[in-house]
Write a structure and sequence with these properties.
Blueprint lengths: L18 H22 L20 E6 L5 E3 L2 E3 L1 H13 L5 E6 L5 H14 L4 E3 L7
Parallel strand pairs: 1-4, 4-5
Antiparallel strand pairs: 1-2, 2-3
Helix pairs in contact: 2-3
Length: about 140
């Protein structure tokens, strides 16, 4: 008996047959080569042209301050309660609508700030923010 002959059926084959694996890989390669160009060709569409210029119309920011006595200041100009609602309605009618930044004094009653927020909501102001001092006391 010679080693390595075909007659020996007891021996375990310790080599992997690479031919079927290569055949499968070649078939997959051909399939991908055919389908990728088909997937790249989409429907021809004429897309609209648009300018890429940035819009310079930024909404103005309104600073509404409430001092320690509860007096309102519209951009550092003193106003009373009746003028506040009128000013807020005029600001809400502008396009683009300005942002309202409320700055309340530390000693002011919360009621005055809440009245300002309520007036802004009734006037139709969409963006309201609070300005605070980030430093701790």
């Amino acid at each position: 008996m010679a080693f390595g002959t075909q007659d020996d059926s007891d021996e375990v084959m310790s080599e992997i047959n690479m031919t079927p694996l290569v055949d499968v890989m070649l078939v997959l390669l051909i399939i991908f080569m055919i389908t990728v160009p088909v997937m790249k060709h989409a429907v021809d569409i004429e897309l609209p042209r648009a300018s890429s210029a940035a819009q310079n119309a930024k909404p103005q920011t309104i600073r509404l301050s409430v001092d320690a006595q509860g007096i309102y200041f519209w951009n550092e100009a003193r106003i009373d309660d009746a003028q506040l609602l009128e000013q807020l309605q005029a600001a809400a009618a502008r396009n683009p609508q300005p942002e309202l930044h409320i700055r309340g004094d530390r000693a002011v009653r919360y009621e005055r700030v809440a009245q300002a927020m309520s007036a802004a909501k009734r006037a139709g102001i969409q963006k309201i923010g609070f300005v605070t001092d980030p430093t701790l006391p």
